[in-house]
């Protein structure tokens, strides 16, 4: 089981995550979308492709671009399509 928590609120939880480069990618269906809003930020990874971001929002506080996903990952990263990862102070807890 893995959970993503920010500001005391669970943003995502799933037993079916993908691990890649030390990051936990949650299936989109497990996200609490009420705490995410699209961000205009993007970045490019040479082997995964272009990442798009969400701001994480809890109780009016905004953690800008704290979640990312690859809508069209390159073939070597295809397994993270439809998944979202977190950083910038979002706590990702995993249990065996």
Q: What's the short version?
A:
The protein is mainly beta and 96 residues long. The protein is built from no helices and 9 strands.
Give the secondary structure arrangement, pairings included.
Blueprint: E1 2-6, E2 9-14, E3 18-20, E4 23-27, E5 36-45, E6 49-58, E7 61-69, E8 83-86, E9 91-94
Antiparallel strand pairs: 1-2, 1-9, 3-4, 4-8, 5-6, 6-7, 7-8
DSSP strand count: 9
Percent range for β-strand residues: over 45%
Task: Supply the number of helical segments.
Answer: 0
Main β-sheet description:
6 strands, antiparallel
Distance between the termini: 7 Å
Give the averaged pLDDT, no decimals: 97
- Classification by helices and strands: mainly beta
Strand order of the largest sheet: 3-4-8-7-6-5
Topology order in helix (H) and strand (E) letters: EEEEEEEEE
Using the CA coordinates, give the radius of gyration.
13 Å
Shape: globular
């Amino acid at each position: 089981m893995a959970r993503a928590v920010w500001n005391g609120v669970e943003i995502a939880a799933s037993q079916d995550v993908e691990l890649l480069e030390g990051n936990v990618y949650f299936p989109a269906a497990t996200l609490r979308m009420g705490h995410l809003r699209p961000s205009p930020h993007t970045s490019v990874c040479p082997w995964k492709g272009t990442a798009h971001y969400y701001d994480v929002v809890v109780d009016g506080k905004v953690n800008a671009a704290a979640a990312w996903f690859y809508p069209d990952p390159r073939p070597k990263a295809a397994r993270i399509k439809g998944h979202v990862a977190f950083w910038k102070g979002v706590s990702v807890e995993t249990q065996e």
